[in-house]
Write a structure and sequence with these properties.
The protein has about 100 residues and is of the alpha+beta class. Helices cover about 25% and strands about 10% of the residues. The strands form two sheets. The protein has a two-stranded antiparallel ribbon. Strands 3-4 form a two-stranded antiparallel ribbon. The radius of gyration is 25 Å and the shape is elongated.
């Protein structure tokens, strides 16, 4: 049983996130960029595809580009962000006979 648990944890693959759009990047995909004279804690930037990289180079803000994940989160376009509200039960009035 323990062998099964160890075997499954080895197969877990770490996904990276695009610096600009926020999309998940699977191993073997995406583009890495090391900016010249960039002082930061994260010197290697990863991008989902060339489209994201070019938007980053043009200094576009992902909050204003409609296809980026950042925009979709801010404007609540995904189904994950919406919380389904429970319907309140409508009170029903019961007519009772007068006793006494």
């Amino acid at each position: 049983f323990l062998y099964f648990i160890v075997q499954n944890t080895e197969k877990m693959v770490k996904k990276e996130e695009c610096e600009w759009s926020g999309f998940a990047i699977h191993p073997g995909h995406g583009r890495k960029y090391v900016p010249f004279a960039f002082i930061s804690t994260k010197p290697v930037l990863t991008f989902f595809k060339n489209k994201c990289f070019m938007q980053y180079k043009r200094k576009k803000n992902p909050r204003f580009v409609q296809w980026s994940r950042t925009y979709r989160r801010l404007h609540r376009k995904t189904t994950d962000a919406t919380v389904t509200r429970r319907r309140a039960h409508k009170t029903t009035r019961v007519n009772r006979a007068i006793v006494g």
